[in-house]
């Protein structure tokens, strides 16, 4: 069983052109519960952030909620992400997942948050927030 926190507010999944500059607002003045992740590839830059921090020049898909596995999660442990994604897939809730050194995160559509938390609870996880 995992403890999962539902972070406050809505999140955006953003795409920026390769070589774009990241706006300073992405990293300045983050609240304790805010999460921002950036991935660079030759195809472009992907940003996941609170909606109010979404870069103006980005293609933005919004209204996601962010779930955080209470960690830290040992990097040697296997199956953590699968234990979350599998019940959500069974409930037909789409997800966007990312990990940090300490833990795993899932985004679920804001309109499906209730279904997502129900599926995770039925799978034996404890959801708070």
What does this structure look like?
With 129 residues, the protein is an alpha+beta fold. It has a single domain, classed as 2-Layer Sandwich (VC0802-like), CATH 3.30.2130.10. It is built from two helices and eight strands, in the order E-E-E-E-E-H-E-E-H-E. Strands 1, 2, 3, 4, 5, 6, 7 and 8 form an eight-stranded mixed beta sheet that branches. Helix 1 crosses helix 2. The protein is globular, with a radius of gyration of 15 Å.
Give a short account of the largest sheet. Answer: 8 strands, mixed
Oligomer: single chain
- Total number of β-strand segments? 8
Shape descriptor reads globular
Helical content, roughly? 10-25%
Q: Name the CATH superfamily classification.
A: VC0802-like
- Low-confidence region ranges: none
Which class in CATH terms?
Alpha Beta
Structural class: alpha+beta
Q: In the residues, how many domains can be counted?
A: 1
Terminal Cα span: 17 Å
CATH architecture group name: 2-Layer Sandwich
* Number of helices, counting only DSSP H or I runs of 4 residues or more: 2
Radius of gyration: 15 Å
CATH topology: VC0802-like
pLDDT averaged residue by residue: 91
Query: Secondary-structure element order, as H and E?
Result: EEEEEHEEHE
Residue share in β-strands: 35-45%
């Amino acid at each position: 069983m995992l403890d999962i926190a539902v972070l406050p507010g809505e999140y955006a999944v953003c795409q920026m052109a390769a070589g774009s500059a990241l706006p300073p607002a992405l990293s300045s003045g983050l609240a304790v519960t805010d999460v921002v992740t950036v991935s660079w590839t030759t195809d472009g830059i992907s940003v996941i952030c609170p909606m109010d921090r979404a870069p103006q020049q980005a293609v933005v898909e919004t209204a996601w909620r962010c779930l955080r596995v209470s960690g830290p999660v040992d990097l040697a442990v296997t199956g953590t992400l699968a234990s979350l994604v599998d019940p959500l897939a069974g409930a037909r809730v789409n997800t966007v997942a990312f990990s940090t050194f300490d833990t795993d995160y899932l985004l679920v559509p804001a309109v499906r948050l209730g279904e997502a938390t129900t599926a995770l609870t039925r799978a034996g996880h404890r959801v708070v927030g």
